[in-house]
Write a structure and sequence with these properties.
With 324 residues, the chain is of the alpha/beta class. It contains nine helices and eight strands. Strand 1 and strand 2 form a beta hairpin.
Length: 324
Amino acid sequence: MIDSTALDPALFREDAISEETAEVARQVEEIMRTLPPTETRDPKELREERRNGGGTLPLPPLSDKAVTRSIPGPAGEISLRIIAPENPEGCFLFLHGGGWTLGSADGQDPLLEAVVMFANLACVSVEYRLAPEDPYPAAPDDCEAAALWLAENARQEFGTERLLIGGASAGAHLSAVTLLRMRDRHGRQPFCGASLIYGAYDLNMTPSMRNWGDRPLVLTTPLVEWFTDNFVPPATYDMARRRDPDISPLYADLADMPPAHFMVGTLDPLLDDTLFMYARWIGAGNQADLDIAPGGIHGFNAFPCALTTEMNAKAVGFLANTGK
């Protein structure tokens, strides 16, 4: 039975937003208005700035528990960043966000450490190739290769075959694409659960994204257009080609997908992507949970506040309990 409270209209009203959450949005918007728009910058400069602690989102500390290893990929070796407990009860394949253009495998160590601590999972974060230097299908190809490696080696490497997958933003998109590729290209589904946090599932843009405009709450419509054009260059991928399910998984046959946990904030331009994908996941006969964060902006769960604590606990709880 679908939980009718998941789409309670009260969650989307302004009076559902706590003052603390509203203050986070105000501070982010104020900071972003002082910065040059991301889409006017060079991606290489942005990545270097981020490595040096710049950008809108806080730069998390690196884990001293992490190790890196390389696996074969379709265009050379792929680096995996691994944080694991002594006796893991499963593995979590994590695909980072950043609009297929920014981000890195080591950019969310505290989150992965929490998954290790509270869900007792080995976390494997993938350093996939980035656009525009390496546009589609480079990133999905790398994520597919990492998923295959984990499916074939998890028992030997980590002593478990219980596998979960997930990510946020572009990482959620790549997670959905990877699940579809495992089913359609390899005839199997080794993952027992998917954590899909404020993902982008229609690269032609859903109404909430297209209508958002230039209010700078991490994302803007021009910024998402820039990210998407980097990933699927318009000279090659027009609107019709961007509906390919391997690019926009919202259009896929979603039968036989694993249980999923969707999460999104009500002040996220990608709100519709999650609402639509959740409905299609359920409509295909799959299990899914949906958590709505009143007043949550894109990337809200990276900012310390009560909403972040609550929602991250739900995400980790899903990973801890799914597929056991």
